Fold this sequence. Notes:
By secondary structure, the chain is mainly alpha-helical. It has helices at about 5-10, 30-45, 145-150, 165-174, and strands at about 25, 30. It has four helices and two strands; from the N terminus they run αββααα. It has a two-stranded antiparallel ribbon with strand order 1-2. A hairpin with a 2-residue loop joins strand 1 and strand 2. It is globular, with a radius of gyration of 18 Å.
Amino acid sequence: DSFSIIDKVLFMVPIRGEGMERGEIVINGKPFNEILSDHAKWLEDKNNQRLRANLSKACLCEVDLRGANLNEAILCKADLSWADLRKVNLSGANLSEAKLTEVDLSEANLSGAHIKEANLSEVKNISEAKELDTADFTDAIMDDEIREYLSKINPTVKPLDKPGEENKESDKSA
């Protein structure tokens, strides 16, 4: 088939406060656990692209993903708000424009992850995530405290503008 998996994704939207287990989620008619299993097969032999986890635009709000291997998975524009991402392998994953509001990133592997323009508002335990220095956070939305922390270890995160610094530059040229 020449259709894109993105065109066929069905979304499961849990009610706030009622987290979903992996086994309860069905995307494109396929149980989420099966998607993870196929993805693991793809990671071993990358010849069959149909096995790669493509979760673009999927709603995985409040889902317990602890320990899942989403290495190189496609999660563009996915909504992972309030998800438990502790110990998740997101190395090389594409999370561009994903919503990561209030996710827990304790011990998550972000090596080479593409997190461009993602929303990291109120993300938890980001300092406990692994390989933060190699992830791409270009234009990501984040709280000031997180921005200040990441800007010291990751070149894709711009530090906060300190009040008055712009004026000092213009004063020097005057």
